[in-house]
Amino acid sequence: CLNDGTPEVRDASFAALAAIAK
Q1: pTM of this prediction?
Q2: What is the pLDDT along the chain (22 residues), one digit of tens a residue?
Q3: The 3-state secondary structure of the chain, one letter per residue
Q4: How far are the Cα atoms of 2, 3, 8 from residue 15, in angstroms, in the given order?
Q5: Largest Cα–Cα distance of the chain, in whole Å?
């Protein structure tokens, strides 16, 4: 991600990954 330093983006990316993983 471009703004991987921000908690919001990290949380969003994690949520997306979790959704795909499930």
Answers
A1: 0.42
A2: 555 567 787 888 888 888 998 7
A3: CCCCCCHHHHHHHHHHHHHHHC
A4: 17, 16, 10
A5: 25
Calculate the alpha carbon distances from 19 to 3, 15, 16 in Å: 20, 6, 5
Burial class (CB in 10 A: 0-12, 13-18, 19+), 19: exposed
Whether residue 10 contacts residue 4, with contact meaning beta carbons closer than 8 Å, is answered with yes
Q: How far apart are CA 20 and CA 22, in angstroms?
A: 5
